[in-house]
Each structure stands twice: as C-alpha cells, then as structure tokens.
Design brief:
This protein is an alpha+beta fold and about 150 residues long. It folds into 2 domains: about 90 residues, Winged helix-like DNA-binding domain superfamily/Winged helix DNA-binding domain (Arc Repressor Mutant, subunit A), CATH 1.10.10; about 55 residues, Dna Ligase, domain 1 (2-Layer Sandwich). It contains 6 helices and 6 strands. The longest helix is centred in the first third of the chain and has 14 residues.
Length: about 150
C-alpha cells in the first residue's frame, strides 16, 4: 500500500474512532511507513526537519506517544526504536523478531492459544501481564547464511 493510501486509511480509522490525527502525527507516521526498518526518535526528527526545519524533539515524542498508544506504531524497547505496525486492524502490538546482526525487525502474529498460555503461566506465578510487547532476538536467515 502506498504511503498516501496508508495515511488515508489511518485518517479514516481515526475519524471513525474520534481520534485526533494531527499533521505532525501524520508526518511521523508517513516517515515510518516509507522506511522499511525501525528508526529512533532522533532519526525520525532528522527526517521531519527536512520537511519542517524548526521541528523540535518534543514534537516527535508527542506524536510517537499517540501513535504507540493507538498501536499504529510499535516501540522496540530493547533498542529504543520505532516501527510501523504493518498488521491490519485491529491495531495491537505484535511480537517482534529482531536480528542482532543486521537489526532487521519482523512483526509476527501470536496465536490466541499461545497468548492464553503465557497469561496462564504468569497468573500461576502470581503475576499480571500488562504489556503485550514480546521481543525475540537472534539471527535472521540472511545473516545466518552470511555466517555459515
């Protein structure tokens, strides 16, 4: 899907759910959609400053806070980078496969049964899960082939 069509679909979703998708939020979302990998907030800021020279870090962080809260974007906690949620509605965080060599990030689906099993295991330990952010680190197939 083109970036323009993607932003239009997000605008329609926000309108339907009475969410305020500001110009800055759309701009940050467009930058992440155009980029194939994950970006740090300062990398996003640098790209946004090419479009709007006076943009300051709080502008990017406020936009990212909203986009993460709505699950349009996912925060990669281990590297403090952000990646667009390429999954379709409903928007939700997805487990991430992170290559420790090339830093490629792949979103994967997690079955309902595995989610339930994780929650059950946590409950048996007297633990209540709050976040559904799962990050798995290893080597992608391309990096495995290069090291073989």
């Amino acid at each position: 899907m083109s970036t323009v069509n993607y932003i239009k679909s997000i605008q329609a979703y926000c309108s339907q759910h009475k969410l305020n998708l500001t110009a800055n939020r759309s701009a940050v979302l467009a930058i992440l959609h155009q980029h194939q990998g994950a970006l740090s907030a300062y990398e996003i800021l640098a790209k946004l400053q090419q479009q709007q020279a006076n943009t300051k870090p709080p502008t990017v962080y406020r936009a990212l806070d909203f986009l993460v809260q709505q699950h349009f974007v996912q925060h990669i906690e281990s590297s403090s980078r952000y990646i667009i949620n390429r999954q379709q509605q409903p928007f939700a965080p997805h487990p991430l496969l992170i290559c420790t060599q090339c830093e490629n990030v792949t979103q994967i689906g997690l079955s309902a049964s595995l989610k339930a099993e994780l929650e059950q295991f946590a409950a048996q330990q007297g633990f209540s899960l709050h976040s559904q952010s799962y990050e798995f680190q290893g080597l992608c197939s391309a990096c495995q082939a290069r090291t073989a």
